[in-house]
Amino acid sequence: MAYNFASDPMHKIYFRYAYREAVKSRHPEAQCASVLVNHSKGMVSCCNNDEIFPGVYEHAEKRTLYKAINAGFHPSGLTLYTTFGCFPDCAKSIVQLNLRRVIVHKQFYDQSPDSWKSLAEVGEKILVAFGVQYLMWHGSVFDERDTISIRVNQGVTIKP
C-alpha cells in the first residue's frame, strides 16, 4: 500500500505534543500551541502562546519558529503542526522561513470563534499563494479517558 501523508498516524502524536504544551499557556483568552517537525528526524521544537513579557503574548507558531532558530535549526522545508491555524502575521513568517507545510487540527478549528476563523482563512490564503502545503487534519487526538481541555474564546473550554 502506498504511503498517504494525509492519513499518517504521526499526526495524532504530534498534535498530542501540541495540546500538552497548549494547556501550559497562561494566556487569559486562549491556549494554542504548535510543533515544528522534520519528518525524517522527528520533533524540532514545540511552544504555546504564552507570555514573553508581563502582559505581552506571542503566537505559538512564531514562538515555535524562534525556539528552533535559537537552537540552531533552520525551519526551511519542515512541517508546522498547529492546534488552530495561522493568522496572517504568522503565515507571513512561515512563508519567509520557507516551511514546506502547515497542518491544522480541524476539530479545534471547528470549535473556535468565527472571528478567529476569518483571520485564519486569510493566513491560509497567504500560505497557499506562496506554495506552502496546507492540510486540515481530521482525527481524534485524545480518547474519553483523557482529561485534557483547552481554553478558547475567553474561557470557553473544548476537549480536542
Mind sketching the topology for me?
Layout: H1 10-22, E1 33-38, E2 42-48, E3 51-53, E4 56-57, H2 60-70, E5 79-82, H3 88-96, E6 101-105, H4 106-110, H5 114-129, E7 133-137, E8 150-152, E9 156-158
Parallel strand pairs: 5-6, 6-7
Antiparallel strand pairs: 1-2, 1-5, 3-4, 8-9
Care to describe what's here?
This protein is of the alpha/beta class and 160 residues long. The chain has one domain: Cytidine Deaminase, domain 2. The protein has helices at 10-22, 60-70, 88-96, 106-110, 114-129; strands spanning 33-38, 42-48, 51-53, 56-57, 79-82, 101-105, 133-137, 150-152, 156-158. Strands 2-1-5-6-7 form a 5-stranded mixed beta sheet, with helices on both faces. Strand 8 and strand 9 form a beta hairpin. The mean pLDDT is 90.
Which strand order do you get reading across the main beta sheet?
A: 2-1-5-6-7
Per DSSP E runs of 2 or more residues, the count of β-strands stands at: 9
Instruction: Let me know the largest β-sheet.
Output: 5 strands, mixed
Spans with pLDDT under 50 lasting ≥5 residues?
none
Looking at the structure, what is the overall shape?
globular
Q: Could you say what the CATH topology is called?
A: Cytidine Deaminase, domain 2
